[in-house]
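> tool_call: predict_assembly(chains=two)
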Amino acid sequence: MARPATEELRRRNRAALLEQLHRHGPQTRAELTEALGLNRSTIGGLAADLSESGHLQETTGRSTGSAGRPSTLVECVAKSVSVAAVELRFDRVRFALTGLGGEVLDRGELPLEASAGADAAAAATASLLDGAEVAEAVAAVPGLVSGGVVGHSSELGWDGTDLGAALAEATGRKWRVTDAATAGAVGEWSRGDAGEARNLMYLHGGRGLTAGIAVEGRARPGSSIQLGHIVVEPGGRECRCGMRGCLEAEMGAFGFTEAIETTTVAADLGDTKAREALRRSGQYLGRALGAVVTAVGPDEILFGGWLRELYLSSAAAVRSALAETTLPQLRSGLRLRTPALGAEGPLIGAAETGFEAIIDEMR
Amino acid sequence: MLLELTGVSKRFGPVEVLSEVDLSIDAGEVCALVGDNGAGKSTLVKCVAGIHAIDGGSIAVEGEVRDISGPRDAAALGIEIVYQDLALCDNLDIVENLFLGRERRRGIVLDDDSMEQLAAETLDSLAVRTIRNLRQNVASLSGGQRQTVAIAKAVLWNSRLVILDEPTAALGVAQTRQVLELIRRLADQGLAVLYISHNLNDVFAVADRIAALYLGRMAAVLDAADTTQSQVVELITSGRSGSLGLTDTNGART
């Protein structure tokens, strides 16, 4: 009777060990013992198991500079399991083949024509993948995603586009489709600087504005927030989506993707028009965030994409608007930061989503 | 509290530059010090740095009242200051600048290897990616890179409090962003940061708390999350904003 339980326990521990090494890099057995709270000999057994299956290897590791035998390090074998990740943007498809442990084995990028459909994006993805053997494949799309279907994407101009089916047809395998902002949150939590955040929100600034949430580093199902379509000025400018006064329309998000550099430089040189544009955009962003913070209550917000530039250049307006539109209890513990991984967050996060699924399957 | 100023006063002859200033800074937070020209920001920093002796009040580091009578005392307490003019030597390379005056030795020669390694580790821990070669002369660096080196120099010595006097004043937009992110990272790694700036966007981007000086007196110390830009502007220009700030801003004291 005890056997199945032991077997299950062993399986769980094996997954935990792999997850630990995947996230935190090479470690000695002593460090692993401490991190996982398992017995030293248990770790040894598990490591031997996983070495046999080719996932791990032990190396004569770091020298501490002191006398004595250097302790051996346990590390992931990057090539044993790999995940393909693509990130779609309005003008290109970015691709990364990531190995266990987070090492990027291959990278690629292909241009995407304006108003390209799912088939064109899938074809580009297939040629970037180039028939590589992968355990999981994940696509990050800026927009509202449900299953494999992209419900709405301002950036790509898609509405109800079945990307999952197109990718499956072009590559002959199943793809997970996630939204870029959620992927960004997962990426920053696992590989960036935000690993301590419990409820992490990532804002993705591209040609549209979206936000995603990772709770304890995991994508929250249905967490894709259409930040750009929060109405900040009722009856205001007409948005592409048909509503009036959306954040995206009021900020002129389409222009901003390219114009943020010139606008911030002009504002720095004293251009009053540029300053006013930044201040207004910051204020609108702060108001929209106020609504999102009130609804979701994140403990950290990262300003990704071009919103990084906007935030650092108009933080006073953003924070003032946020302070005026949220409860003190919700904003007192709230950290506002810029992403440590820069533009790489969504792509890295997409790969991490794949690894999470692989490790979950082992449990 | 890492640093606690209580009733600090400073006079230059008949002029009272600081008048009973209270301020405390904890580890892991950025406290921004704002104020108009002549409000006493730089004087306050120089008092903490040990350049000016204080005439009244006390400075406590980790709860213990200390007598800081020179820059060396400040450095020994883990207080490092990055001045506006950076004080780097153009004709020395990055590693030499970082260790200037505090070089590591191995016997009678300098231990270049370990200094270079420590310099690389420090810049790495600050996620500095803009500097490739540690052996290039500081003269060849951009303004933002120089600021980065100056900040790294302050962090290298196990400092606990880093004071930055207008670090972005002379920088372009892109470099300002990098320095702001660097300042935030210092605090997130557990250092206390006192940050002086005129630019309210920069202040709001990094600060946890905002301290406003008005004519040598502390008008208010506010949580950045509870503050709006217009409140800070009012505190800087008139010393009060609504119920916040000084109640007797004409200078007369009751």
